[in-house]
Amino acid sequence: MATRRLPNWADVVFVPLLSILIAFAISGFVIWAVGHDPVQAMQIMVRGALGSTYGWGFTLYYATNFVFTGLAVAVAFQARLFNIGGEGQALLGGLGVALVCLYIPWPHWSMALVAAMLGAALFGAAWASVPGYLQARRGSHIVITTIMFNFIAAALLNWALVTRLRPTGSMDPSSPRFPAETRLPRMHEMLEVFGIPFSRATPANITVLVALLACVLVWFLLWRTRLGYQIRAFGHSEPAAVYAGISPVRITMYVMLISGALAGLMAINSVLGAQERLVMNAVEGAGFIGIAVALMGRSHPFGVLLAALLFGFLYQGGGELAFELSIPRELVVVIQALVILFTGALDNLVRMPVQAVWARFGRGRG
Amino acid sequence: MGMDAQTERREAAASQPAGGDVPPAIELRGICKAFGPVQANKDIDIRVERGTIHGIIGENGAGKSTLMSILYGFYRADAGEILIGGRPTVIPDSQAAIRAGIGMVFQHFKLVENFTVLENVVLGAEEGRLLRPSLAKARRLLADLAREYELNVDPDAVISELSVGHQQRVEILKALYRQADILILDEPTGVLTPAEADHLFRILDGLRREGKTIILITHKLREIMRVTDRVSVMRRGEMVATLTTAETGPPELAELMVGRKVLLRVDKTPATPGRQVLRVEDLRMTDSKGVERIKGISLDVRAGEILGIAGVAGNGQSELLEVLAGLAPGRGRAWIGQEELDLTCRISDGQTRRQSQVAHVPEDRQRRGLIMDFFAWENMALGYHHDPAYNRGPLMMDNRAILRDAGEKMERFDVRPPNPHLTAESFSGGNQQKLVLAREIERSPELLLVGQPTRGVDIGAIEFIHQRLIALRDAGKAILLVSVELDEIMSLSDRIAVMFDGRIMGERMGGQTDERELGLMMAGMSGEAL
User: Fold this and answer.
1) Are B148 and B104 in contact (CB under 8 A)?
2) What is the pLDDT of residues B321-347, one digit of tens each?
3) Which residue of B has its CA nearest to A355?
């Protein structure tokens, strides 16, 4: 007798799409209100993000970041844990990458990549393990502790860069450039093999493939393994999980380790792939965008992939918009915020009416 | 007292106008209500005469609650008419229902726990901006009502300190304070001891004498027979019959409810208890708030017998199940056969209990027993997800094997529809329970812990579930049954232990006791004194 469930396609495609359209409509209104043409603005965004291989390169680069942080949040969501600490975990992941690449000589980029992935995942997981432990054993709310750990991570990185990693004499609080052997293949180099021309000026690199692989692996973990079964059972109903003999402490720890590792892996893309050194603000807020990505992707790896692409588009297109239309940079953030608001926070605003309409008109009356 | 009520009821029925003169208190004409494709109420007609107790009976999902929700303004009917006292009335919300003189006592009380009785009664019906005059008025009125109807409650008591029976009286007082002429009670006896239920029925009798009209929604045939003048039976959203209670009986009502003949009694042969399977010595349990819930319980269950634990909800039975199932820590000692169980929960949990051949059908299937968003087949692996037959290698689950096994078990337990790809949520209460039972019983455990096996389950499924439990017993397994339905305890158990306030008040052999004796123990009398 409760509201009938929506069919799957409506749940994962139609409702988010409708939310985005509403968000864009309001954004259009805002752009119009500050004196610009919304249609022109939209054209600039689409052209800027998707109209050239240069635009695509950046869109994919951002999307790759968001896939990792989005997956991190999504895995935790599956266990009903709200890991807001993606930002800090990714920062620490960056530190892991930097240490691995600076202090161990690697003969080839592929070995450096694997080692950096291990370092990033390990550091990210370690950073997430403390809030995880506090939640599991002490009941300290994970939202609070992970937020606090973001600040601690930023301070820790600051300290490491300024006092330890910065080359003597440098004014810039960043690590030295990684050795040339660790340089990951860029998008244009990879596509060159197939004879496809691609802009050389973009940071997109082989990590795109790692992100795709991560999506598949997370899906496999959640729906094909016993651990995934236990994670989902715990997330849907803790009393039922306890009944089944699934230990909340153990699952919370596992999930936070996996989540932290995924967030940490983001550093492969930004620190190793793009900047090739560790800088102060290596994460650029991707940890927080990951929350919106996971919400919009309904905590499903493939939903996360699509949502990450959308946010990659918004990031790159928004940047172009600020550049070309002298629209203040803040307004671009407003547009991104509207999308987050409608797809994440106000999900039910659209979902409920759609559900009501479905209940009334969907399928023949029985 | 039983005889008196009987004759009284006849008189009341006889003194009713033959029709026409006095309009019925409530008349519903052609009420229809659909939720999407589900027709919850189909063309319902019902007349409830003034000054009578009118029972509405039907299985879960028959549409009783929907109908009453329409009457109380929670839902709007798609079609049909409501006449109150002969006047067509539109009831868009509960405020309108209250104005029309309708009061509702919900199954789950809607009281503010940390308010006093008086404050709860006045809540929402305050007059003016200052509270004091309303409270004073309520105090006077409450005193009158207490005298008239045996509705005594201390007006200054805080709700959370009252027994469930008293809380229910507060709900009735709330309705009367709002000058309700028509009182709707939704499953009012679910949480009461037999004695408290008796008291409630006396109150209802008194209210009827004063000319109030009462609608009693229940699934217990006994109560219908006991207090109502007329009874309407609902089945699958339709009103199938309205009968004069004195002219019908439980078998006919059960048949009307289910649509086929139903066995009301469980067929079973005498038990042949074998070796001791479960032994418990001086079990104690303190909950997270520091309240001692179990205060030293010793018992044993043998192979091939059902030990029923009777008692009013909240006297430690749930905690007993939880401790034995390894879900909550307790103190004391317990053995399964020769193996001692760890009751501390430090090295044991639901998994280790399953390894000790203990299966558990939890009281709350929707919170514990099933994951409502999971498919039926995924639920079939809940708790048995380490079973090698369900796994491929050290990490992966063999979803196909689980699916196949789930399909077979659902077939054998007559789960309808037998489709393992549906989420647990989409099954009816009875079929959800069958899913849990199929999962636990098909493992053929040495000891089965069962809590409220038929709560919220329709009559047809109750029959089936009881047969399965008896079959497991006859296969030589031990069963510990906890239920607040005394009928169920009495018809299934070979031995009955009664719990009150965390202790066992006494034990009786199944066939050698009666409801009165058990009722006294449930109210806290020691079994030895009886």
Assistant:
1) no
2) 999 999 999 999 999 999 999 999 888
3) B36
